[in-house]
């Protein structure tokens, strides 16, 4: 069933921006003369001075990636000002609250005014081009306003997901030395409140760089305001004008930093710049979703993740779209919420994550069919491999076999989608992200870095740059080269494994490094380990991913306690709560196994391969354990496997 092919629908192809012939022509044009191709595409955004230099890329040595490098622009102008004459009264953002009775619509003209007012207030607080501003907000319109206001004044935003703990927030603020924090009193999710300002207050105890805090009033919940430091959003923007001179930015000036987890060390600040990122956001949003003027487009992600950056805010707004922003969760007040919102706002394009699809599948077709989905035209998936069962359910039940599914593979680092069907051009296979977009050059390599041809499986790399790729790790360019370009010389290594079939289709198999993907959220196993060993009862910990029916992967922890500490149920619960508090609820361990010993090589290296197999119940082929210092610990762990 997984190898079913679903042909392009003639009705979609006939009207699509890109049909099969057009796609071929684009791929050929880009291959023949990449500079000419991107010179043509760059005009999709507004430039104050058009670039003459298009591409300058070196994947060797110090690694340097520059696109449109002598161009001058401001991202907020592309997303706002240039739409005012043609679509000032069109809705830019439809906001749908956690509470099904609350929603709001913001036109391009209103959004422009709100962004300018905040940008003026930020300038008055002393925020200048190049300063870092941390945004810790729930899914309210203010989040988009804050991003665009940063872009307006040339400040680099760093959004921290509202589900992260005070400690996680603090370490991100410290790493990029943010001078301003924009937050809200509280967030709302699934009928519960999230104490954002209280978390921020705790984080700021260790963040001396932050001089000002702007607080949006959202729930009206009581918060403490520190005199001189904290300002209410409404008060500080009240007297400001509704126009604001946009800062002139070079195409390669940074637009934002977004922290993401890797296989080692603390989260790294992925840095994206202005021109190439915005061209890529616009190009991919328009073509992958076949977006047409007047359509309502909904991406269910949170702006705290890259999906929200590129496909709730920058891509759609650059394209003059109507983008829906949802504060809530798919399961509240009931499991029909997504479809109720689709019916209410007549959503045409819907983009969500496999974990949500799998969770909703459990309730059957009832909650879906209760709501009218006839407005839906295109469905999208992102964040993790989508299993064929979930794909087919999404296709048959949600989309009534009418809507193509675009399974979009990409990463925080890539800025936007790289591998995905184009709905009018590429036949679908359930579970496959299909083919690279024009301008994207993937390859599969073996562990020695040899490029593999034809139908095969290997490590997924990119042989050349595309405009939207990350430029560096904030403050640590050496780590950038080390992380992405040293495993396979001269190639960008994604950290993913993939299979390529006879038709050249890519099937992403998942991470091949020590990164796990829990419900579409990326987590470094090393981060969870360091949270565990920070607990006074823990001597050592090893964390691996385990298969999880809903979340894709769950967090499996092997914990060695300090001598004399009793492994009790109370302690187990305490450790689970501890990790949640240290990192945030998204890092909640799914299983903790007491491990009197861990399998180590004679040189002391933990053999994670073995731990992964035990957690996955794959103890048949454990492979070579002869290099272990104490082979006996393996049997002990198998015998006491949790769950
Ligand atoms: C990792 C990137 C892409 C934005 C959201 C996540 C996995 C992402 C797919 C997909 C299979 C996918 C990969 C990738 N992933 N999309 N369509 N099929 N796997 O961004 O947090 O940077 O995570 O998510 O493993 O490396 P991220």
UniProtKB/TrEMBL annotation:
Residues binding ATP, per UniProt: 383-385, 407-412, 496, 511, 522
Gene3D superfamilies recorded: 3.30.300.30, N-terminal domain of ligase-like
UniProt keyword annotations, A-Z: Acetylation, ATP-binding, Ligase, Magnesium, Metal-binding, Nucleotide-binding
Any one Gene Ontology cellular component term annotated for this protein: cytosol
HAMAP family named among the record's database cross-references: Ac_CoA_synth (MF_01123)
Binding site for CoA: 189-192, 307, 580
Pfam families on file: ACAS_N (PF16177), AMP-binding (PF00501), AMP-binding_C (PF13193)
Keyword ATP-binding: yes
Species classification: Bacteria, Pseudomonadati, Pseudomonadota, Alphaproteobacteria, Acetobacterales
Acetyl-coenzyme A synthetase N-terminal domain segment(s): 25-79
PROSITE patterns cross-referenced by the UniProt entry: AMP_BINDING (PS00455)
Cofactors that this protein relies on: Mg(2+)
Record GO biological process: acetyl-CoA biosynthetic process from acetate
Native species: Neoroseomonas eburnea
Function statement: Catalyzes the conversion of acetate into acetyl-CoA (AcCoA), an essential intermediate at the junction of anabolic and catabolic pathways. AcsA undergoes a two-step reaction. In the first half reaction, AcsA combines acetate with ATP to form acetyl-adenylate (AcAMP) intermediate. In the second half reaction, it can then transfer the acetyl group from AcAMP to the sulfhydryl group of CoA, forming the product AcCoA.
Residues involved in Mg(2+) binding: 533, 535, 538
Gene name tied to this protein: acs
InterPro entries hit by this protein: Ac_CoA_lig, ACAS_N, AMP-bd_C, AMP-bd_C_sf, AMP-binding_CS, AMP-dep_synth/lig_dom, ANL_N_sf
Span of domain AMP-binding enzyme C-terminal: 527-605
The reaction(s) this protein catalyses: acetate + ATP + CoA = acetyl-CoA + AMP + diphosphate
GO molecular function: acetate-CoA ligase activity; AMP binding; ATP binding; metal ion binding
Domain named AMP-dependent synthetase/ligase: residues: 81-471
Protein's name in the database: Acetyl-coenzyme A synthetase
């Amino acid at each position: 069933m997984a190898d079913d092919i679903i042909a392009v629908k003639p009705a979609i192809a006939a009207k699509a921006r890109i049909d099969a012939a057009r796609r071929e022509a684009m791929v050929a044009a880009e291959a023949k003369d990449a500079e000419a191709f991107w010179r043509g595409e760059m005009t999709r955004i507004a430039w104050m001075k058009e670039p003459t230099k298009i591409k300058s890329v070196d994947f060797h040595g110090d690694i340097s990636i520059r696109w449109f490098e002598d161009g001058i622009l401001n991202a907020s102008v592309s997303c706002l000002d240039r739409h005012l004459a043609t679509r000032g009264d069109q809705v830019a953002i439809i906001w749908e609250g956690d509470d099904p009775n609350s929603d709001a619509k913001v036109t391009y003209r209103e959004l422009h005014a709100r962004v300018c007012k905040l940008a003026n207030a930020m300038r008055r607080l002393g925020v200048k081009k190049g300063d870092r501003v941390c945004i810790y907000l729930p899914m309210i319109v203010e989040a988009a306003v804050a991003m665009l206001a940063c872009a307006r004044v040339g400040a680099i935003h760093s959004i921290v997901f509202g589900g992260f703990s005070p400690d996680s927030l603090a370490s991100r603020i410290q790493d990029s030395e943010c001078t301003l924090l924009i937050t809200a009193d509280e967030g709302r999710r699934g009928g519960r409140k999230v104490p954002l300002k209280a978390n921020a207050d705790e984080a700021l105890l260790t963040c001396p760089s932050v001089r000002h805090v702007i607080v949006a009033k959202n729930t009206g919940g009581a918060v403490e305001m520190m005199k001189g430091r904290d300002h209410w959003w409404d008060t500080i923007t009240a007297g400001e004008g509704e126009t604001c001179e946009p800062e002139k930015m070079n195409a390669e000036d940074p637009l934002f930093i977004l922290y993401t987890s890797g296989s080692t060390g603390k989260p790294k600040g992925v840095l994206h710049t202005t021109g190439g990122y915005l061209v890529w956001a616009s190009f991919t949003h328009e073509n992958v979703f076949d977006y047409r003027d007047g359509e309502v487009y909904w991406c269910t992600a949170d702006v705290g993740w890259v999906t929200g950056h590129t496909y709730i805010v920058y891509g759609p707004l650059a394209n003059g779209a109507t983008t829906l922003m949802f504060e809530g969760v798919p399961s509240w007040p009931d499991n029909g919420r997504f479809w109720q919102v689709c019916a209410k706002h007549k959503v045409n394009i819907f983009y969500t994550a496999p974990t949500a699809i799998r969770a909703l599948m459990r309730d059957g077709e009832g909650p879906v069919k209760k709501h009218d989905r006839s407005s839906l035209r295109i469905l999208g998936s992102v964040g993790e491999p989508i299993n064929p069962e979930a794909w087919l359910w999404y296709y048959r039940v949600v989309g009534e076999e009418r809507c193509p599914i675009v399974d979009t593979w990409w990463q925080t680092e890539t800025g936007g989608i790289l591998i995905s069907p184009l709905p009018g051009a590429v036949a679908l296979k359930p579970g496959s992200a299909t083919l690279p977009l024009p301008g994207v050059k993937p390859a599969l390599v073996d562990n020695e870095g040899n490029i593999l041809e034809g139908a095969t499986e290997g490590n997924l790399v990119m042989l050349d740059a595309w405009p939207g790729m990350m430029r560096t790790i904030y403050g640590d360019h050496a780590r950038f080269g080390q992380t992405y370009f040293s495993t396979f010389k001269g190639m960008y290594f994604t950290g993913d494994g993939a299979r390529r079939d006879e038709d050249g289709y890519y099937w992403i198999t998942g991470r091949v490094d020590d990164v796990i993907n829990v419900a579409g959220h990326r987590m470094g196993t090393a981060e969870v380990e360091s949270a565990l060993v920070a607990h006074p009862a823990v001597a050592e910990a090893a964390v691996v991913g385990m298969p999880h029916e809903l979340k894709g992967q769950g967090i499996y922890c092997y914990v060695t306690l300090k001598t004399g500490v009793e492994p009790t149920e109370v302690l187990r619960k305490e450790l689970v709560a501890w990790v949640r508090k240290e990192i945030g609820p998204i890092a909640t361990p799914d299983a903790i196994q007491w491990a009197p010993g861990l399998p180590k090589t004679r040189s002391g290296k933990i053999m994670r391969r073995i731990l992964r197999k035990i957690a996955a119940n794959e103890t048949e082929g454990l492979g070579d354990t002869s290099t272990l210092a104490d082979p006996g610990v393996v049997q002990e762990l198998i015998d006491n496997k949790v769950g």
